[in-house]
Specification:
469 residues; alpha/beta; TIM Barrel; Immunoglobulin-like; globular
């Protein structure tokens, strides 16, 4: 975890042409919130159920603040008890940074591989997932030979090969993987073997070779985050017109699986080198992040991380997660300015039921069409594969499942309305919506809770829609 990124990127910032300034005046008032509106639609016949949004922040999977842990050869593995304790405080994400410092010239030891697996087991037992990164060095000093920051490319690729079985085995508790490996902190900057400051397309080939190896090693359901939009654009020959669309998103291509992380969010006019070309880079990430995971950390208090500016950027770049521990100056500013709770509670998705309609003549064996309307008031859609299932529970406790017929990854910020049909086997019963993790269906703590009062049951992982007694 790079806690000093604004120092390590100082050279890049100094060498970057000064872009046009963006507005960033100090603003200590909470961002004005405009409630979402429901499109004009005909009201279905039948019984109407209206839901009330909860004011509480939700302990939902794959979103929100994360807690950070760096793991070296000399440190102990993460414990399930710690994961459970943090989950009780509302944290479902961890940043795990594994440092392969002891293996710069050869294979990763079996004991360290076992330590990685122990951390994954702790996440699973504790009900959390991780933002995953591997690196070799966590300390760069001016004058230090940069070839000490990472090994030869061949050794890095060999390490990826060694890690592949672990990555495949622990798909269920890996939320997203950051590309890592290259340079100090795995930030893809101070590097002695991957071309320090690439300028020509050929300079990016070692990094693309690593990226392709990571895409192969990581299960196809998971995304890999690159540190800047330039890396994706240069390695794959993309421009703003080539960003993902609803048609090309989540199709398994390298482009659909390459996301971004900004570890200097709101730090300066170009976020300390995150955006090389101010206009094109920003437009690329704004469009691409609608369909890919975006997160990271803040690193410097500036006029670009006021409440108003920060919320606008979180909306524009579809932010899903953020470091809880860094940078405290920025987090404290949000807190004293009155916007902290809102920003954090809307990271990622926040699904709020508005209303539901079901027929008065609901009867056993008769097809029943339910109209469901909800808003996602969060900054992003759920990003990994997710079940969406209607569950009819009979008075005897039997559960009958019907696919919802929609992919939650398409539930972007805004209004959503669906008509879903199912055939109940009884006249009486309860209808639920289950948004479970397809890899952890028997773990209710990995199911999504809707942001409504008296709807979600944490014991079962089901959201109650209506009941006929």
């Amino acid at each position: 975890m790079n806690r000093w990124i604004f120092c390590c990127l100082a050279l890049l910032f100094a060498c970057t042409p000064a872009p046009k300034d963006r507005e960033g005046e100090e603003n200590t008032t909470e961002p004005e919130y405009t409630a979402p509106t429901v499109p004009e639609e005909a009201e279905p016949e039948g019984i109407r159920v209206v839901f009330k949004e909860t004011a509480s922040s939700l302990t939902n999977p794959e979103r929100g603040h994360y807690r950070a842990r760096d793991v070296f050869g000399s440190t102990s593995a993460l414990k399930a008890s710690e994961v459970k304790a943090r989950r009780a405080e509302g944290y479902t994400l961890w940043y795990l940074g594994f440092y392969l410092t002891d293996f710069m010239k050869g294979d990763i030891s079996s004991s360290f591989l076992n330590k990685i697996q122990a951390c994954m087991d702790a996440l699973r037992d504790g009900g959390a997932k991780c933002v995953l990164r591997f690196a070799y060095s966590n300390d760069y000093q001016e004058g230090k030979p940069m070839d000490k920051e990472d090994p030869e490319v061949s050794i890095v690729l060999r390490h990826v090969e060694q890690l592949k079985p672990l990555l495949q085995k622990n798909e269920d508790v890996i939320f997203v993987m950051q590309a890592g490996f290259v340079g100090t902190w795995g930030e893809w900057y101070y590097t002695g073997h991957f071309n320090f400051q690439p300028s020509q397309d050929a300079d990016y080939l070692p990094r693309k070779q690593l990226t392709e190896a990571l895409l192969d090693a990581l299960p196809a359901s998971r995304q890999i985050e690159l540190r800047t939009p330039q890396f994706k654009m240069r390695m794959y020959g993309l421009s703003v017109k080539d960003t993902l669309t609803a048609r090309t998103a989540h199709n398994g291509s390298p482009e659909s699986r390459l996301a971004g992380h900004n570890d200097c969010f709101g730090a300066s006019v170009n976020d300390y080198g995150t955006f090389d070309n101010e206009t094109k880079d920003r437009e690329f990430w704004k469009a691409d992040s609608r369909y890919t995971i975006m997160g990271g950390e803040t690193c410097n208090k500036s006029n670009y991380c006021t409440c108003t500016a920060s919320e606008k950027d979180m909306i524009d770049y579809h932010w899903t997660y953020l470091n809880k521990d860094y940078n405290s100056d920025v987090l404290n500013r949000w807190s004293t300015s009155g916007c902290y709770d809102k920003l954090i509670s809307h990271l990622g998705y926040r699904l709020v039921l508005q209303e539901l309609f079901y027929p008065e003549d609901l009867a056993a064996g008769k097809p029943c069409t339910v109209t469901i309307r909800f808003h996602n008031t969060g900054y992003a859609a759920p990003m990994n594969p997710r079940d969406a299932i209607l569950v009819w529970e009979t008075p005897s406790g039997a559960q009958e499942e019907t696919p919802f017929g929609a992919d939650p990854r398409t539930w972007h910020s805004g209004y959503h309305g669906y008509e879903v049909s199912f055939t109940p086997s009884t006249d009486k019963g309860t209808l639920y919506l289950k948004l479970s993790d397809p890899l952890l269906r028997d773990r209710p703590e990995y199911s999504i809770a809707l942001a409504n009062e008296n709807v979600f049951n944490a014991r079962t992982g089901l959201n109650k829609l209506f009941e006929i007694k």
